[in-house]
Amino acid sequence: MRAAKSQSRSRASVSTDKSLEGSEEVSGVLAEAEENGGEEEAAFRRQYAEASVRNEDSAPDKDVCEEERAIGSAKGSDRSVAQKGFKGFFGSQSVAEGEEDDLAFPAVAAPPASETFRRRRLTFAMQGNIPPHTPLSQVQQRVFRSLEIGDVPKVPLPFREGQVGTFSCHGIEPSYLDTRPFVAKINQDRGICVYPFAGHERMALFAVFDGHGEQGDKVSEFCMYEIPRALEAHSSLKGGDDNMIHTLKESFLTVDSRLNLEVGIDAFFSGTTAVACLVKGKRLWVANAGDSRCTLATADPAGTKRLLARDLSTDQNPDSPGEMARIIKNGGYVSPSPEPGLSARVWLDPEYTQVGLAMARSIGDRAVKGVGVVAEPEVVEYSLAEDGSDKFLLLASDGVWEFISSQEAVDIVNAHLEKGVSAACQVLIEQAAGRWRDVEGDYRDDITALLIMLPLFK
Description:
By secondary structure, the protein is α+β, with helices and mostly antiparallel strands. The protein has a domain at about 75-110 and about 135-320 and about 375-455: Phosphatase 2c, domain 1. Helix content is about 25%, strand content about 20%. It contains seven helices and 18 strands. The strands form four sheets. Strands 1, 5, 6, 7, 8, 9, 15 and 16 form an eight-stranded antiparallel sheet that branches. The chain has a five-stranded antiparallel sheet with strand order 2-18-17-10-11. A hairpin with a 7-residue loop joins strand 3 (about 170-175) and strand 4 (about 180-185). The longest helix is centred in the first third of the chain and has 34 residues, at about 25-55. The radius of gyration is 21 Å and the shape is globular. The two termini are about 30 Å apart.
C-alpha cells in the first residue's frame, strides 16, 4: 500500500533506501533536478531515481503483481481529517516482475490504428475531437502521486489480528517498444480505513476509489481524504442514525463541489468511483457512486459450508433504466453495450464520439455532469444478523468485478481465509489478474480489494 504526501495533509510515508543515496544514477538525477527545479523537485526525483535503481537491481519475485499493504497512521495534532485515530491508505504505483516503471521507461505512443487494444475496457473513451474546456490553474499544483515502488513497511492495523485485510495491484498496458511487451500503469485505485471514526469507538469508515482519466489518480486520492473529512464535518452525523443516508449523500456531493475548486486537479475529463461503508456497531451504510462494489458474505440458510454473496451496492451502468432515463432527460446519449460483458457509455453527442463514460455516477467528470451523470450515491442501510450469519464484507474496484462475479469472489476469499485476511485478498487479486491476462493479454486494469471480517465490533 502507499502513503502519499501533499502540502496540506500529513500522513506516514515510506522511508527510502539509504544505501542507494550515493549511487551514480541517483546522484545524476538529483543534480539535474536541483539545477532545474529546486529542492522540492530534487526530492521528488530522488525518490523516483532510488525506486528505479532498486527495481532494476532486484525485481520483486512476484508472478502477477506486487503486494501493497495498507499503510499510514497519524499521531497527535498532525492527524489529517481531524481524526483521533488510525487512517490506513492503500493503492500505489508498484512494479511487478517483468514490468517497468512507466515514468522511468515511458512507452512510445501507439499509432492510431492500434489504439483499439483497450478502448473496450477503458472507463473514459474519446472517439472524436476533445470538446474545449479551460483547465484549472497549475500554479499551486500538489504532488499526489506515490513515490514508492515495490514493497513497503507494514504498519499494524487498528483492529485485532485477522479482522481487516487489503491488497492492491497496479494495471499494465501494452508497450510499443521492442524491448518489453507491456509497461506498468500508475495505480489510480485508492482506499482508506478510518478508525475510530468521528470520535466513536464503535464506528469505522472503509472506502475504495477507482480513478479514471488523465488525472484519475489525483481525483481518487483527493476523494480518499475529502470523503472522511466531509462526513465528519456534517452536522447530521451527530444527530443520530436516522440521518445517515442523507449525510452520506450530501457528503459525496460536497466533495464533488470541492473537487471543482481544487487547484492542481483538472477533473473535466477525469473522475473516480467511490464505494464507502460506514460501520456503527452492528449497523452499516454503503454509499456507492460508480461501478466499484461492496458485497456481503453470509452463511447459507441450507446449512452448507458455502457462503452466499449479497451485493450491498449496485453497479451504476448507463443503460440501467433509471440511470438512462436521467441521462437522456438531461440531453445526454447512451450507447448500448457493444458486446456481452462490456459497458454501455454516456456521450455528449448522438454520433457517440465525445467522452464515452462507462458509468452513470461518479465524482469528477465535469464534462458529462451537464448531461445527467451525478455524484450523488445510492445508499443502502443494513443491520447485521443477530445470529452471526454475516461473515465478511468485501469492497473492491472493478478490476476484480470485470471477470469475477460477486459469488465467485466470496467463494475465493472464503476458501483461503485460513491463510489470513490479507492473504485471501491477495489470492482474489491474483486470480482476477489471471483473468485479465487470459482475456485481454497485455492490458490489465488496477485491482484493489478490502476485506472486513464481521462482526467488526463485539
